[in-house]
Amino acid sequence: MSKKTNQDIKQLRAVGHKLKPVVTIAGNGLTDGVCAELERALGDHELIKVKLAAGSRETRAALAREICDRTRAELVQAIGNVVVILRRSARPDPRLSNLIRAL
After folding, report:
1. What is the DSSP code string of 2-27?
2. Which CATH code fits 6-102?
3. How many angstroms separate the CA atoms of 7 and 5, rounded?
4. Domain residue ranges of the chain, discontinuous segments joined by +
5. pTM for this structure?
């Protein structure tokens, strides 16, 4: 992934702030079905918000790292039980991409 400047991260956080979580990960963790839904959402929207209904701060941090590893995405922001992740698409759909629609 390319190196992000502070301005890039600020802009991504601003866009992510307005989003609603598209996936919620609860007690069963990161199952194959959840991974498939994350892949679909990242492919369509590029920047998504995910709700982590997991226990402690450490558990949520580990889950966020695992999500990014398995989906090849970048963690943009983690606040409480919500994370914003980014995976740019080679050919984003202007009607679906949260990045294109925000500009």
Report:
1. PPPPHHHHHHHHHHHHTPPPSEEE-T
2. 3.30.110.60
3. 5
4. 6-102
5. 0.90
